[in-house]
Structures are given as structure tokens and as C-alpha cells.
């Protein structure tokens, strides 16, 4: 060439497949799988197993009106919990009132914008009963002020066999930093009439790994 601007660098590589081959699985991150909800659950004491004898309630949960945490063998001769030995009881305790029984957990840190998925296992106290409940998520700022409220339709277990119910919602207020979660009996309850809940889950929806 007349000068360096005419110099062209070329590299030729020949040969067979790389040796040794890449043994790292999914090295380019193309494959995904669903994240285990139980490992990423934002709820504390989700199955109501922990109990504070001094305070008389399940830690991290706030009882509204007549909601009760039950366990085996202290409150029942049969272990009817879905898992473990404890469950939440809405109704079935003699209270018959227009005041709704509920259990709530607050200060659940979430991101924005973030679609949330809440699920809980539920059953009727008495087979053939028709009690219903709702799931409510309160999107809040850092001072626990409610900015948005999301409530499911009435949810009705069809028997005294555990069923899982799921509710999803997406806060849209940019000031949202946390949420509170409430499970509410929408009937009046009374002895033999109520809903049992166990194994709640609150996770960001759509997480994959």
C-alpha cells in the first residue's frame, strides 16, 4: 500500500467446534421459568402459624371485629388447617353483625409500577354453606396513606374443602411504595356460618427467573 490508510486488517479463524464446549446451562439467559411464590412471598406469617400468647393474636396481622386465629389441638379436636396446625376464622364465632369481620396485614413493601398477585386458600366452615369473602389491596405511600383501593368480587368456596382464590391488581399512582392486604367476610357470620382461610400469598405478578 502507498500509505497506512490502505492497510486492511483481516483475521481468519478456522477449525472445529470450541473445545471444551460451554457447560453453563442457559448461558445466554434465553430460557425462563416461573418463580416459586412461596419463596418470594411478601406476607409475614402467611399461614397464621406464629402466635403471640401475651398479645393474643397472630403476629403481623391486625384483627378487625370478630376475626379469630385458630389452631389444633387447642381449638379443635381435628386438624383442619390446610398446612401446619393453624388457620384464620371469619365468622362461626357467635357474632352476628353488620360490622364486617376481617384480618389485615400492612406495610408490605412493593415497587411501582408493579402488578401484584394475592392468593389465599379458603373453605366454608360448614359444608353446603354459602358464605363469601373479599380480598382487598390498599396501595399506600410511605406514611401508610391509602392512595388506591382494589377489591375483588365476592369469592365463595363451594364446600368445606380447601380451594385457592387469586386476585391481581396494578397500582398506577407514582407515590405508591407499600400496600396493606385485607381478607373480609362479606356475610354476617354466626355459629356454623363463616369462612376459614390459610396460606396467604402476596407476590409481584409475572416474575420469572
Write structural notes for this entry:
The protein is an all-beta fold and 209 residues long. It is 0% helix and 33% strand. It contains no helices and ten strands. It has strands spanning 62-64, 68-71, 86-91, 102-109, 116-124, 133-140, 146-151, 163-169, 178-185, 194-204. The strands form two sheets. A five-stranded antiparallel beta sheet has the order 1-4-9-6-7, with no helix packed on it. A hairpin with a 5-residue loop joins β6 and β7. The radius of gyration is 26 Å and the shape is elongated. It starts with 61 loop residues before the first strand and ends in a 5-residue tail after the last strand. The mean pLDDT is 86.
What structural class is derived from the secondary structure elements? mainly beta
Mean pLDDT: 86
Number of strands: 10
Strand order of the largest sheet: 1-4-9-6-7
Helix content: under 10%
**Radius of gyration, CA atoms, in whole angstroms:** 26 Å
Major pleated sheet: 5 strands, antiparallel
The topology string of helices and strands comes to EEEEEEEEEE
Residue stretches low in confidence (pLDDT < 50, at least 5 long) are none
Give the helix tally.
0
> What is the terminal separation in angstroms?
54 Å
Shape: elongated
Fraction of residues in β-strands: 25-35%
Amino acid at each position: 500500500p502507498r500509505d497506512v490508510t490502505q492497510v486492511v486488517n483481516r483475521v481468519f479463524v478456522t477449525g472445529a467446534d470450541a473445545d471444551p464446549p460451554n457447560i453453563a446451562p442457559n448461558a445466554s439467559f434465553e430460557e425462563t421459568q416461573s418463580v416459586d411464590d412461596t419463596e418470594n412471598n411478601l406476607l409475614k406469617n402467611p399461614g397464621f402459624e406464629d402466635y403471640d400468647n401475651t398479645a393474643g393474636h397472630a403476629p403481623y396481622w391486625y384483627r378487625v371485629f370478630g376475626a379469630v386465629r385458630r389452631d389444633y389441638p387447642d381449638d379443635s379436636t381435628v386438624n383442619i388447617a390446610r398446612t401446619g396446625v393453624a388457620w384464620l376464622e371469619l365468622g362461626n364465632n357467635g357474632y352476628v353483625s353488620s360490622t364486617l369481620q376481617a384480618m389485615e396485614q400492612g406495610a408490605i413493601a412493593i415497587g411501582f409500577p408493579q402488578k401484584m398477585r394475592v392468593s389465599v386458600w379458603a373453605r366454608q366452615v360448614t359444608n353446603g354453606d354459602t358464605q363469601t369473602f373479599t380480598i382487598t389491596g390498599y396501595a399506600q405511600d410511605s406514611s401508610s396513606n391509602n392512595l388506591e383501593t382494589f377489591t375483588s368480587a365476592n369469592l365463595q368456596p363451594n364446600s368445606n374443602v380447601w380451594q385457592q382464590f387469586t386476585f391481581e391488581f396494578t397500582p398506577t399512582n407514582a407515590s405508591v411504595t407499600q400496600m396493606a392486604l385485607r381478607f373480609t367476610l362479606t356475610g354476617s357470620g354466626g355459629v356454623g356460618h363463616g369462612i376459614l382461610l390459610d396460606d396467604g400469598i402476596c407476590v409481584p405478578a409475572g416474575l420469572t427467573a
